[in-house]
Write a structure and sequence with these properties.
With 361 residues, this protein is α+β, with helices and mostly antiparallel strands. The protein folds into two domains: 159 residues, Ribosomal Protein S5, domain 2; 135 residues, GHMP kinase, C-terminal domain (Alpha-Beta Plaits, 2-Layer Sandwich). 39% of the residues lie in helices and 22% in strands. The chain is built from eleven helices and 14 strands. Strands 2, 3, 4, 5, 7, 8, 9 and 14 form an eight-stranded mixed beta sheet that branches. α4 packs across α6. The longest helix is centred in the last third of the chain and has 20 residues. The chain starts with 10 loop residues before the first strand and ends with a strand. The relative contact order is 0.17.
């Protein structure tokens, strides 16, 4: 049964949080075939069955709900000045605006929302979407605490995406929210049928075998932040104007190749598909890789690995995939190259197997 608006209204949850504080966390992700999760692409390309692959990482974002006196909403996050507003009065174009928009959706008040992330800020790993998923999970738990029904993972994804797209004012994809909610290594297909759920999940590696991926992946922070909507806006604009559509058809094919290679454990084939996809993206928008990114990508190719920027590139992170011995050989090479930028470095991480989790108190 679909929850009604009144079933999702929380009101002042300060008294509830006094005795039952709530924490939830969700993982970030690395990806291949991104942008195809935006409806501007997968609706007109529906006949090609576009998909996106992502792998959730155990660098989690934790959202904590604590009580405050009165009816206001307070949000804090490292690296951003704290903000506090009355319900429904926060500007949604504020750096923390998405969190206030989620709180307003639930009619929540009397709450301090604290966000703590183990990923670098604006690193192309899906950070804001991950925080929104974790925040909705905390509010779902709060609903249960006042005797209402909680929200399923599917609905958490759809709600987080809908609110973020509304606040952003530009088309947004679904893959960040999906990786945050479900974890694992998955191919997501976009049915593009208003009568059906907007995504279909195909696990590429069974949960028991996910650990083998840890030695086949490498993730690096380039030391500079990115703004994904700038590159995405270029891609959407090009596609809508009719430019480069053959490139997107090729990206769909390469994403399918990549997913199949990962599923059968053929990492050299996965690396080859990745390098070809990265080359296409760079031809469309050269700014997806800076000089550091170019050097890292070239080193990965030399080592027999694939390399790709995360998200829409233009800074943030890069990741590599390959056979375990090839990745082991690439690791010290990337480490040396990254020392050229004080803020850059490899990220220690493993594949996340759980997705969003609420921490009991």
């Amino acid at each position: 049964m679909t929850p009604q608006a009144s079933d999702l209204h929380l009101g002042n949850i300060g008294p509830l949080l006094e005795s039952r504080p709530i924490d939830a966390s969700a993982p970030c992700r690395i990806d291949f075939g991104g942008t195809l999760d935006i409806s501007s692409f997968h609706y007109p390309l529906r006949h090609l069955a576009p998909s996106t692959v992502n792998i959730a990482l155990d660098r989690r974002t934790t959202v904590s709900l604590r009580p405050i006196h009165g009816d206001r909403i307070h949000v804090s996050s490292a690296g951003i000045a704290d903000a506090e507003f009355n319900p429904s009065e926060a500007p949604y174009d504020h750096p923390l605006g998405l969190m206030f928009a989620v709180a307003d959706y639930f009619g929540a008040r009397g709450v301090h929302i604290h966000i703590q992330s183990t990923s670098p800020p604006r690193s192309g790993l899906g950070g804001s979407s991950v925080a929104a998923v974790a925040l909705i999970a905390t509010f779902s738990k709060a609903l249960e605490g006042i005797g209402k029904r909680g929200i399923s993972r599917d609905r958490i994804v759809l709600l987080a995406h809908a609110i973020e797209q509304g606040v952003a004012g530009v088309p947004c994809g679904l893959q960040d929210q999906l990786a945050a909610a479900f974890g694992g290594a998955n191919a997501w297909t976009w049915p593009a049928d208003p009568g059906l759920p907007p995504f279909v999940r195909t696990p590429l590696v069974e949960a028991a075998a996910l650990r083998r991926l840890d030695s086949q992946l490498l993730v690096a922070y380039l030391g500079v932040t990115h703004v994904s909507k700038d590159v995405n806006r270029s891609w959407v604009s090009q596609f809508i104007s009719g430019n480069g559509r053959e490139k997107w058809r090729e990206i769909i094919r390469l994403t399918r190749e990549f997913a199949g290679a990962v599923a059968r454990g053929d990492m050299p084939a996965a690396a080859e598909a990745m390098n070809r996809e990265t080359a296409i993206r760079k031809a469309m928008t050269p700014q997806v890789l800076d000089d550091m990114g170019d050097r890292l990508a070239a080193a990965a190719v030399d080592a027999g690995c694939g390399a790709r920027f995360t998200g829409a590139g233009g800074g943030g992170c890069m990741w590599a995939i390959g056979a375990a011995d090839a990745v082991a050989a690439l690791k010290p090479v990337w480490e040396r190259m990254l020392t050229g930028r004080p803020t850059a470095g490899l990220l220690t991480c493993r594949v996340d197997t759980c997705g969003v989790m609420v921490t009991p108190h």
